[in-house]
Design goal:
Shape: elongated
Protein name: HMA domain-containing protein
Radius of gyration: 48 Å
Strand content: 15-25%
GO molecular function, one term: copper ion binding
Number of helices: 25
Structural class: alpha+beta
GO biological process, one term: monoatomic ion transport
Largest sheet: 4 strands, antiparallel
CATH architecture of one domain: 2-Layer Sandwich
Number of strands: 20
Helix content: 40-55%
Pfam families: HMA, Hydrolase
Subcellular location: Membrane
CATH class of one domain: Alpha Beta
């Protein structure tokens, strides 16, 4: 409630409740006295009516009346400490109402009081106190309508003899059942029989028995509560001060011991005339730390306490170190591939001699040392990874390629480097401008004084904003966004057989729209086989094949293929009959190459040679198309063969990727060159990507890896600027 209109609204809401006889609302006390018929309306109904009117309500305990309840119950009022919310109130009320002998229990959060109506023949005051304390709260009896206890303040006690005199007087008084004197508070608690002695007679008896040495007065229970609150407030204040100084000590360890590396790095950068993220971290945390120290010492000296920001500096250092840890973790993981390759050779061998020249037993499946010499024995060796020896070996070239790629910078990082170079001076300048703006604005009255924190001033208020600009603007992710992503991408690619030459190639690959494939040996298996043999003369088929095999053995496959094309036949004046031409066309349209065979200037037959597609070729082409990449095929065969291979999968146009040998010029000229198979130096030199496993699916892996990496870099930048 904030005005008379509010109190009138509450009164109207209460009086409209059926069963309410009278309602009076006090605005200043924030209280309402309601007289109602309990048979028609309950406490909760009245509370709900107030809340429905748009106000908050809480049921307070009724004023204590020292009248004996008609049913023999007693009414006790207890202080309850430790309650902080409505849930605590409900918890205490529930515990009290569940106690045997308790008829009614009401707890008020605002006054920390609880009123309990109970049957003294079933439960005692101490039982109620114990039940509250067992629930995790503090409790003490304030007063009760049972006239058998009185708390008195005693003046005139100065020594132990005075205490003994008081105890002696109490021991001689009739009707006194029990007493306890508190030397700290000078309070005397007396339990007595009200049928034998009254409270007035008890006071007179103690004063008279001491020869008027002691003066007694009845203690007001609410005054005792106030004294207890003051004592509790003082205790909390001492704990608060202790907590601040302890925070100072602990944060100092974080600031200057754990955070020492930032000061060292910042000092080195400033001596070199440059600024980096370490300068920003050191500046921001130092500003927060030293301001908090000044605020703490000023508060201890003057009693005016300003907010401190010790946790800001310590948490900032903690989070930056977490980022450094993640960076090191990423570096370690991306170098795993290189470590694995460096131990690639010689693994699994047994040393038979121990001399200047060790003799190794190479077990089946083990790796052969590239600089070794076979002493005895024979076997089969996979030479795909060792075309040379020593530092020129393909394995060493691959390792060098990956290491170079991880050190390279993608073009997108140039933007980050530029921003980082001007970021720190910009942040410092903005921090100073922020301080001046808020400080000058306050002195000229640009904003109301209500905005100032308690016990604050314009200088402190402006300094808070200035520090905030510095401490939230530590974009360590700005410097890590690109290199970490590139390192992870090259490491992941290497582990999956995709070697990337650098960040430049990685960034270009994510923009690929067309992929051009070489056919033979890439999309196809590179293992041509004779599938058809047709003789057009009277020559026996076996003799025909014998002549062809003899020519192939003598002149080689290349010569045989050259002899068998139309151009060479025409150049030698050999006529190709129509039925032979039609047969060759049928072969070509079925994805086979027709080889014409002539003997003594006469065409005697045709061979059909097929180079079947790799099993994954169709899947890769379909996958590229789903990625929005258009595949294109180039081939040295005639156009009918190329078209037949391209249309083998639902009429889709198939493209080929080079094997890095005869396609080196194309690989070098392309925006992104991908060589399938890493058995040659030409592949490593000419291509941007080397697909080690000779698997077409790695083309999709390479493009997808590039796209995901660049997407992650962009997200790193976006999240960095949003967080900052």
């Amino acid at each position: 409630m904030t005005c008379a209109a509010c109190s009138n609204s509450v009164e109207s809401a209460l009086k409209s409740v059926n069963g309410v006889l009278r309602a009076s609302v006090a605005l200043l006390q924030n209280k309402a006295d309601v007289v109602f018929n309990p048979t028609l309306v309950k406490d909760d109904d009245i509370k709900k009516a107030i809340e429905d009117a748009g106000f908050e309500a809480e049921i307070l305990a009724e004023p204590i009346t020292f009248k004996t309840k008609p049913n023999g119950t007693l009414l006790g009022q207890f202080t309850i400490g430790g309650m902080t919310c409505a849930a605590c109130v409900n918890s205490v009320e529930g515990i009290l109402r569940d106690l045997p002998g308790v008829k009614r229990a009401v707890v008020a959060l605002a006054t920390s009081l609880g009123e309990v109506e109970y049957d003294p023949t079933v439960i005692s005051k101490d039982d109620i106190v114990n039940a509250i304390e067992d629930a995790g709260f503090e409790a003490a009896l304030v007063q009760s309508n049972q006239q058998d206890k009185i708390i008195l303040g005693v003046d005139g006690i100065f020594s132990e003899m005075d205490v003994q005199l008081l105890e002696g007087v109490l021991s001689t008084l009739k009707g006194v059942r029990q007493f306890r004197y508190n030397r700290m508070s000078n309070e005397l608690e007396v339990h007595f029989d009200p049928e034998v002695v009254g409270s007035r007679s008890l006071v007179d008896g103690i004063e008279g028995g001491s020869g008027l040495k002691f003066k007694l007065h009845v203690m007001n229970p609410y005054a005792r509560m106030t004294s207890k609150d003051v004592e509790e407030t003082s205790t909390m204040f001492r704990l608060f001060i202790s907590s601040l100084f302890l925070s100072w000590a602990l944060v100092s360890v974080v600031q200057f011991v754990i955070g020492k590396r930032f000061y060292v790095a910042a000092g080195r950068a400033l001596r070199n005339g440059s600024t980096n993220m370490d300068v920003l971290v050191a500046l921001g945390t130092s500003a927060s730390y030293f301001y908090s120290v000044c605020a703490l010492l000023y508060g201890a000296a003057s009693g005016f306490w300003s907010p401190t920001y010790f946790e800001t500096s310590s948490m900032l250092i903690t989070f930056v170190l977490l980022g450094k840890y993640l960076e090191c973790l990423a570096k370690g993981k991306t170098s795993d591939a290189i470590k694995k390759w460096k131990v690639h050779w010689g693994k699994g061998n047994r040393c038979l001699t121990n001399s200047a020249w060790d003799t190794l037993k190479v077990l089946p499946g083990a790796k052969v040392p590239a600089d070794g010499v076979v002493v005895w024995g024979s076997s089969y060796v996979n030479e795909s990874m060792a075309t040379k020896v020593g530092s020129d070996a393909v394995l060493n070239q691959i390792i060098s390629l990956v290491e170079t790629a991880q050190m390279s910078k993608a073009p997108i990082q140039k933007f980050a480097d530029f921003v980082a170079s001007i970021f720190v001076p910009t942040v410092v300048a903005m921090s100073l401008l922020t301080f001046l703006g808020w400080y000058v604005g306050g002195t000229i009255g640009a904003y109301p004084d209500d905005w100032l924190p308690e016990n604050g001033n314009y200088f402190v208020f402006a300094l808070m904003f200035s520090i905030s600009v510095v401490v939230i603007a530590c974009p360590c992710a700005l410097g890590l966004a690109t290199p970490t992503a590139v390192m992870v991408a090259t490491g992941v690619g290497a582990n999956n057989g995709v070697l990337i030459k650098g960040g430049d190639a990685l960034e270009r690959a994510q923009k690929i729209k067309y992929v051009i494939f070489d056919k033979t040996g890439t999309l196809t298996q590179g293992k041509a086989t004779v599938t058809t043999a047709k003789v057009f003369t009277g020559m026996d088929r076996g003799e025909f094949l014998k002549w062809v095999a003899s020519a192939e053995a003598t002149y080689g496959r290349l010569c045989l293929e050259q002899v068998g094309n139309r151009k060479l036949m025409n150049e030698n004046g050999i006529t190709i009959p129509t039925h032979v031409e039609n047969f060759v066309v049928e072969l070509e349209e079925s994805a086979k190459t027709g080889i014409l065979v002539a003997f003594d200037d006469n065409l005697i037959g045709v061979l059909g040679v097929a180079d079947p597609l790799k099993r994954e070729a169709a899947i890769v082409i379909e996958g590229l198309q789903k990625m929005g990449v258009k595949p294109v095929m180039v081939t040295g065969d005639n156009w009918r063969t190329a078209r037949a291979v391209a249309q083998e999968k639902d009429g889709s146009v198939v493209a080929m990727v080079g094997d890095g040998i005869n396609d080196s010029p194309a690989l070098a000229a392309a925006d992104v060159g991908m060589a399938i198979g890493a058995g040659t130096d030409i592949a490593i030199e000419a291509a941007d990507y080397v697909l080690m496993r000779n698997n077409l699916e790695d083309v999709i892996t390479a493009i997808d890896l590039s796209r995901k990496t660049l997407s992650r870099i962009r997200w790193n930048y976006i999240l960095q600027w949003h967080i900052t």
